[in-house]
Amino acid sequence: MPKITIYVPDELKAEMDAAEGQQPNWSAVAQEAFRLECARLLTRKRSKGKMNETIERLRASKERVTNQEKAAGHAAGRAWAMERAEFDELRRAAEFYNAERGGEWNAPYDASGWFYAAIQDDERPEHRDVASFWQDEADTDEPSEEFVFAFAEGASEVLNEVEDKL
User: Fold this and answer.
1) Of the chain's two ends, which shows fewer C-beta atoms within 10 Å, N or C?
2) Structural domain boundaries, residue 99
3) Which of 112, 117, 113 is nearest to 151 (CA)?
4) Is residue 140 part of a domain?
5) Residue 150 within a domain
6) Coil, strand or helix: which one is 136?
């Protein structure tokens, strides 16, 4: 049987030395680890040809989910604007939509938190208030970024449609 040399960090060697009283078979342990890694690599190599099909299938699935989120967000934003929003909230929703698309979200909020902060004109709303708003308006306390922007777009459209009549 061929021999190989492997290197381990000092702290691992110390742990191995401490376990010597239990008479471990380090060669068998290493062989099993090598077998597992070889099997993993072989499986990965075999599936490489199918990866393009997988990518295309997942890309189509992602697009379908994103489109569903956008449609649901748009409808929810229009409903909120038409049934519950106040004028100042709608104005701030439109400002958010026009100014923040594609923005980077910094702590402590994501797009849903920043949208809520914008419409409430509150730089530091409580997380429970943000979650409650989205639960009431979207039946979720964590809408996706796509949903939030579509919500803002739908609300903005309503304001644009009625603003000259106010």
Assistant:
1) N
2) 71-165
3) 112
4) yes
5) yes
6) helix
